[in-house]
What we know:
Layout: H1 13-25, H2 28-61, H3 66-114, H4 119-125, H5 127-168, H6 170-176, H7 179-189, H8 191-217, H9 219-224, H10 228-280, H11 286-308, H12 310-327, E1 345-353, E2 359-368, H13 384-392
Antiparallel strand pairs: 1-2
Helix pairs in contact: 1-12, 2-3, 2-5, 2-11, 3-5, 3-12, 4-13, 5-6, 5-8, 5-11, 5-12, 6-10, 7-10, 8-10, 8-12, 10-11
Amino acid sequence: MTGERRILPVATARRSAAVVWRLARKRVGLLFLALAFTGAASAALVAAPLLLGRIVDAVVDGGDDARTTLLRLTVELVVAALAAGVLLGFARRFTEQLGVMLAAELREDVLERALQIDPQILEEAGSGDVTSRVTEDVEMINTSVELVASVLVSLVTVIVTAFGLLSLDWRLALAFAIVFPIHWAGIRFILPVLGPRFAAERRAAAARSPAVLTVLGGAATVRAYGMAQRQLDVISRVSLEANAARLRALRGSLTFDNLMNGAEGVGLTSILVTGFLLARAGEVTVGEVTAAALLFHRLFGPLGNLLLSFSDIQRAGSALTRLVGVVDLPAPPAAPRPYSRPLGFTVQGLGHHYPGGVEVLHDIDVDVPAGSGVALVGPSGAGKTTLAAMIGA
């Protein structure tokens, strides 16, 4: 459309995942340590509820060796709890270390390519789009490192816990599975709405940046021409649009969060009712029902964190696709050799407009004698970069 500003490209989710995997493969050893300690920590976490269930059965059954059994199980429980804490600490350490290193390398790649962007692309996109990507989007990737570590631990814990429930009784595991249709409904009907909303939030933030930067950079000019109120109105408009986009994303995120919290209540009730019926029929022991309830209760944290983080993951994913879009920009041609002596030039009647866009230069006259210089001053999008590129061509 005429007058519509071009934005920098945004990579696909598949392409972004490929870039992250390429960076991770450079650190295979660290990746292996993160996965190994995460699996071991999850196994230790699941062992504690199973041991507590056996302690309940030992108390109910009594017997001559009940005291010895309780002492042994208690020692095993303490060891499992200590091991879980230590292993979990190492798991988070290696995972976050890997994430920080990946984010740092990605940030360097983005900044390196951003400094090499073709002036014509930069002029069409506007400096605000680039600025928001190398500042806000990069910062979002940095802050999401801890989130990714938490999600990895939660995912492995959920898988190990599912096997723990199956080891007790398949019907107890089936009672736990009642939460999956609720989770599926949230993922199927709410998450597809969240993705576009978070992408719109990032675009609105990108539009707000150049408005603020233009006013701050040209504050003296704004005051001199009495344009303060006009510029404040522009900032107010783009800020309201950015806030509205954020509120739409937050409303969808809160709806998803509430649905997931309701699923936890349904799941725990299902396990308790099923366990009661099975225990009364003599199919399972009280300790096994206790272990199943504790396992599901232990899942409140990991499963809730895993599902409730979907919105944050999508927000970070939107930022990642914007960063990879910058990384995938074609490399600029080799820079020409600098002139051995300063040259002068004269330009008369220069004009230019981009295909499908408005005219950015009109009847420009410039005369710069050899050995002198000239400064171009103006707001973002005024045509400074375009003029310099055409003169240097």
